[in-house]
């Protein structure tokens, strides 16, 4: 019983680690910004992104669990050197995202306590570092993500109800959109399962020893739960923003999500935004640092031995870059799009690995998952190139 309870805790921890890694400042900014431009039709974008997210996540977690290896080692087994290339992309994307996450934490503390964003960011970075300095860092990280994940969802639900969104219209436009925006789809997918994010929970399970064919049922449930948690948060935030937009109220372009919370629930809503922003940001800081370092720790025994200090260094560098330079909102959307471009590469590698006996042994990967994953790879590659050519330059006009 104790073992089952312990494994359930690990699986939930992995799900919340992935979900809270996805729900960061960029997630809040992207969701509210796109709701303002697409209104109820943004529901369609969320629906398509959830389907793509599931296609990516189910394949990635399953193959990591069966092989018992982290993604970079799987990639190197598929083609020598590919794991190093993938790790470079992941770590650079993770670092860029983490600067934005730290910025979000600073913004949250500014709203809550009136302190300068840079001081708030510094204190938040110290809190994130402290998690990895305790003896049972993995368990503390799991519990931290789980508790703050619940806090974010509950507070956002409250704000959603106060915003009085047109739910009926949202449901209709989710299946019959008035307009479709490709950039918003790739940005959402990039922000939910792009870059390091889809590997956060999978690598956590490898660290905890939840691997092998016998663990597949639980791993699949955990991977679906992770997407479910992130999607629930996305839907509630979308409905809250839609309620404000439908009333004809204007969002502050410098901080769209704060506007939603404040317009929906006044000063109480603004303070709730501070809590949600800080929780979203600091859990993403933890997830980004942990997962990014997990992509390089297996490359040498020295890196493996001192991986905790690498995580600490990763957070410290992210914090110092923000404190010294700053981080504009547009970069969060841009990095989300670029992270979407990493997805077809990483998922493509995983699908090839699923049919390599030296990686997965006698495991037979379900054909429907391969087809599902293949469609996601093609769709994301197409949309990624499309957004680079057409969408991203518009952000900087």
From TrEMBL:
<feature type="transmembrane region" description="Helical">
    <location>
        <begin position="183"/>
        <end position="202"/>
    </location>
</feature>
<feature type="transmembrane region" description="Helical">
    <location>
        <begin position="367"/>
        <end position="389"/>
    </location>
</feature>
<keyword id="KW-0472">Membrane</keyword>
<keyword id="KW-1133">Transmembrane helix</keyword>
<feature type="transmembrane region" description="Helical">
    <location>
        <begin position="223"/>
        <end position="249"/>
    </location>
</feature>
<dbReference type="InterPro" id="IPR001046">
    <property type="entry name" value="NRAMP_fam"/>
</dbReference>
<keyword id="KW-0812">Transmembrane</keyword>
<feature type="transmembrane region" description="Helical">
    <location>
        <begin position="78"/>
        <end position="99"/>
    </location>
</feature>
<protein>
    <submittedName>
        <fullName>Putative membrane protein YcsG</fullName>
    </submittedName>
</protein>
<feature type="transmembrane region" description="Helical">
    <location>
        <begin position="331"/>
        <end position="355"/>
    </location>
</feature>
<dbReference type="GO" id="GO:0005384">
    <property type="term" value="F:manganese ion transmembrane transporter activity"/>
</dbReference>
<dbReference type="GO" id="GO:0034755">
    <property type="term" value="P:iron ion transmembrane transport"/>
</dbReference>
<feature type="transmembrane region" description="Helical">
    <location>
        <begin position="269"/>
        <end position="296"/>
    </location>
</feature>
<feature type="transmembrane region" description="Helical">
    <location>
        <begin position="144"/>
        <end position="163"/>
    </location>
</feature>
<feature type="transmembrane region" description="Helical">
    <location>
        <begin position="308"/>
        <end position="325"/>
    </location>
</feature>
<feature type="transmembrane region" description="Helical">
    <location>
        <begin position="119"/>
        <end position="137"/>
    </location>
</feature>
<dbReference type="Pfam" id="PF01566">
    <property type="entry name" value="Nramp"/>
</dbReference>
<dbReference type="GO" id="GO:0015086">
    <property type="term" value="F:cadmium ion transmembrane transporter activity"/>
</dbReference>
<dbReference type="GO" id="GO:0005886">
    <property type="term" value="C:plasma membrane"/>
</dbReference>
<feature type="transmembrane region" description="Helical">
    <location>
        <begin position="38"/>
        <end position="58"/>
    </location>
</feature>
């Amino acid at each position: 019983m104790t073992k089952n309870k312990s494994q359930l805790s690990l699986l939930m921890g992995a799900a919340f680690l992935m979900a809270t890694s996805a729900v960061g400042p960029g997630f809040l900014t992207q969701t509210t910004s796109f709701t303002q431009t697409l209104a109820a039709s943004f529901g369609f974008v969320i629906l398509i992104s959830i389907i793509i997210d599931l296609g990516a996540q189910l394949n990635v977690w399953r193959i990591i669990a069966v092989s018992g290896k982290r993604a970079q080692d799987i990639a190197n087994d598929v083609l020598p050197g590919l794991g190093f290339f993938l790790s470079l992309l992941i770590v650079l994307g993770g670092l860029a995202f983490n600067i934005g996450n730290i910025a979000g934490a600073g913004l949250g503390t500014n709203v809550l306590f009136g302190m300068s964003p840079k001081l708030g960011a510094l204190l938040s970075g110290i809190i994130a570092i402290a998690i990895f300095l305790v003896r049972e860092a993995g368990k503390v990280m799991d519990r931290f993500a789980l508790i703050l994940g619940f806090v974010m969802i509950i507070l956002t639900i409250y704000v959603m109800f106060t915003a009085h969104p047109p739910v009926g219209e949202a449901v209709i436009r989710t299946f019959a959109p008035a307009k479709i925006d490709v950039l918003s789809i790739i940005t959402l997918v990039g922000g939910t399962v792009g870059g390091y994010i889809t590997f956060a929970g999978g690598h956590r399970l490898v660290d905890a020893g939840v691997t092998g064919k016998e663990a597949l049922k639980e791993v699949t449930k955990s991977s679906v739960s992770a997407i479910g948690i992130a999607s629930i948060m996305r839907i509630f935030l979308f409905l809250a923003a839609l309620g404000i937009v439908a009333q004809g109220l204007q969002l502050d372009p410098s901080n769209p999500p704060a506007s939603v919370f404040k317009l929906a629930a006044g000063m109480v809503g603004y303070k709730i935004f501070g809590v949600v922003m800080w929780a979203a940001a600091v859990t993403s800081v933890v997830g980004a640092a942990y997962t990014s370092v997990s992509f390089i720790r297996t490359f040498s025994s020295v890196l493996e031995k001192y991986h905790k200090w690498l995580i600490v260094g990763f957070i410290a560098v992210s914090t110092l870059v923000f404190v010294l330079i700053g981080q504009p909102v547009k970069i969060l959307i841009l990095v989300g799009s670029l992270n979407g471009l990493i997805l077809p590469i990483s998922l493509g590698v995983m699908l090839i690995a699923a049919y390599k006996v030296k990686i997965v042994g006698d495991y037979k990967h379900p054909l429907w998952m391969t087809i599902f994953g293949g469609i996601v790879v093609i769709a994301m590659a197409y949309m990624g190139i499309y957004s680079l050519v057409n969408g991203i330059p518009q952000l900087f006009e």
